[in-house]
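Collaboration report, partner site 2.

Our partner group contributed sequences for two proteins of shared interest, and the home lab folded both. The records are reproduced in the order in which they were received, starting with the first partner submission.
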Amino acid sequence: MIKENFEVYKAQNGYDGLSLFYEKNPSIVILDLMLPDISGEAICREIREKSDIPLIMLTAKSHEENELQAFSLGADDFIRKPFNIKELIAKVNVLLCRYENRGFLLHENIIEDRYIKMNMINKTVSIHEKIVELTPTEYKLLELFMRNPNRTFSREKMMQEVFEYQKESFERTIDTHIKNLRNKIEHEDKNPEFIKTIFAMGYHYENNKN
């Protein structure tokens, strides 16, 4: 992959791989399920808690059930061992292109649109380069919107995504959180630039890149 002008960081075990992930903030992760010290599944879960960068799983050819497991854990694609390096490079290029088209600055684990910047590693949000304090729920809502630009979410769907089906949640709770979030990120909360209300449907995040 170095011949294809990729900057490659290699780890011989899982813990070293996680250290590299946090230190180097890579644009893509290629993860073997079979590691000597910690399972690939555990590493995948930790990465997905911190970042949405592209992730390819390496699986044993004879273990087809691992492929379904890879997707369930949040992997974007898999490749069976032994593999052709050209196939791996092709998958890497496709994933990088797909994520870049969604507006991600992958090499920094940042989602950025106009003057809003979300850092997925340290979980901070900046408006015009100044850190703003969001509640955990406001952060989850903004992340949901920015990862899915121009997609309309019903209140029920946002409750499922943000509150994880908590029974005590109800639809007007979403309206309150949206109002508070707009107050923090919009120039004019009554004429929002980012989070739009879609009558009788819900809300969506308007991204002029798409």
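Second partner submission, folded after the first:
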Amino acid sequence: MQTALFYENIQVRSRGAVSSRTFKHMSHAGSKHEEEAFVLEAVQCVLNGDINAFSIIVKAHEKLIAADLGRRLPAQDIQEVAQDTFLRAYRSLGSFRKEAPFRIWLLRIARYAALDFWRRKYRRKDVPFADLDAAAWHTAEADRQSNEREQQKDREAEERARERLNAALLHLTPDDRAVITLIELEGFPMKAAAEQLSCSLSSIKVRAFRARHRLKRILEQPLREKDEIR
């Protein structure tokens, strides 16, 4: 939504600013060098606070960006990603160092925007791998493998934590183990746990506090020392 509104505002400005003598000068630039110089002048104007000058940048490059994205995206998504590209460029304009022509810098932003588009599509499972180009396929596959590795690590960590907790519970007294199982593992409210263990509410609170403290001590100790803690 923010991207579309930004782009719409720029388009409105372009109908005024870019159709004037300024755009006429840009249109009749005799060489790429002159075009680049004119674009750089517009960049400096934007950096100096004249947001209207960004419409010149958009007008000068919108066909280039659309053509580049047309080789990477479905036709119906080109405009959306082009809008995203120009919004990113506007936000990053201060980082442009003139180490390469402005159009090269802008094309690089467009390609990152296209890759991010495919990442979002793939994560929502809207698009099969067959529809991805080589670069996007590589990125999506790398993301998938990374996600799988992270999920596997989470499962393994969860399993280790479960095994460690079960081992620690065996070092508690039966009474402490019953309290921890009811309140911490099965989620019983204090009152319901007291009824299950046939004790008062105040008593179960004290027992739960002490059982948690003992369990915490066991979990904090190296495995070889657990047999000494009873």
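Feedback sent to the partner group on the second submission included the following. Confidence is low (pLDDT under 50) at residues 14-24, 224-230. The two ends are 61 Å apart (CA to CA).
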